[in-house]
């Protein structure tokens, strides 16, 4: 490997951290959950990481079998980074970690990137509404296309066009989508300003709006564990 330190502990948690415990590693995985990216796209989505550190993290994750490289044939000649099947298996853990972290008492300054925003929508989705909100949707955000599909037993979001004609579409920019999802502006206000457009039949558009408006940050849960004072007579 590339000199990474090991905890030397056979516990599965420690072995997982041997693979993804370095700083930035999990965020690289996060930004590949929706689909492959080029190096420059990854770098742009991870403010604060240097090109050298990103190169090292990609090398480490590739050596561990979490990420793989794929070169597109000519005339494209583009190198993509994508998760392996083992790497994609981290998604449930990352979504759960995101829900847990959303309850932290502090929130750093800075806007959510598009990958984080869409994964937050997925993490906050209420599965009891799957039948109600079922459908195939396309999101056109700043020129990039994302496919979202809600079925009775799953929610899938990927960086790709829908494999079939979508029931509804939304076209907007990331800043507007963030504001809508955070209820800072309404969909109607965004449409009136010309910064958001919806396509499809009315009932499908309503389902798409409801899908996007899931809570991005769950409310903090009250503490339920308290230390029980020991009765002196029990000592």
Please give a structural write-up.
This protein is of the alpha+beta class. The chain is 38% helix and 17% strand. It contains 11 helices and 8 strands. The strands form 2 sheets. A 5-stranded mixed sheet has the order 6-5-4-7-8. Strands 1-3-2 form a 3-stranded antiparallel sheet. β2 and β3 form a beta hairpin. α6 packs across α7.
Please supply descriptive tags for the structure shown above.
235 residues; five-stranded mixed sheet; three-stranded antiparallel sheet; globular
Give the SSE layout.
Layout (H helix, E strand, L loop, with lengths): L11 H9 L4 H6 L6 E2 H6 L6 H13 L3 E5 L7 E5 L1 H4 L2 H11 L12 H11 L5 H4 L1 E7 L2 E7 L4 E4 L9 E5 L1 H8 L5 H6 L3 E5 L1 H11 L23
Parallel strand pairs: 4-7
Antiparallel strand pairs: 1-3, 2-3, 4-5, 5-6, 7-8
Judging from the principal axes of the Cα atoms, what is the shape?
Answer: globular
Measured between the Cα atoms of the first and last residue, the distance is 53 Å
Q: Roughly what percent helix?
A: 25-40%
**Number of extended strands:** 8
- Enumerate the strands of the largest sheet in spatial order, edge to edge or round the barrel: 6-5-4-7-8
User: How is the main sheet built?
Assistant: 5 strands, mixed
Radius of gyration: 21 Å
Low-confidence stretches: 218-233
Structural class: alpha+beta
- Mean of residue pLDDT? 89
Topology as H/E string?
A: HHEHHEEHHHHEEEEHHEH
Alpha plus pi helix count: 11
Percent in strands: 15-25%
Please outline what is shown here.
Helices cover 38% and strands 17% of the residues. The protein has helices at 12-20, 25-30, 39-44, 51-63, 85-88, 91-101, 114-124, 130-133, 174-181, 187-192, 202-212, and strands spanning 37-38, 67-71, 79-83, 135-141, 144-150, 155-158, 168-172, 196-200. α6 (91-101) packs across α7.
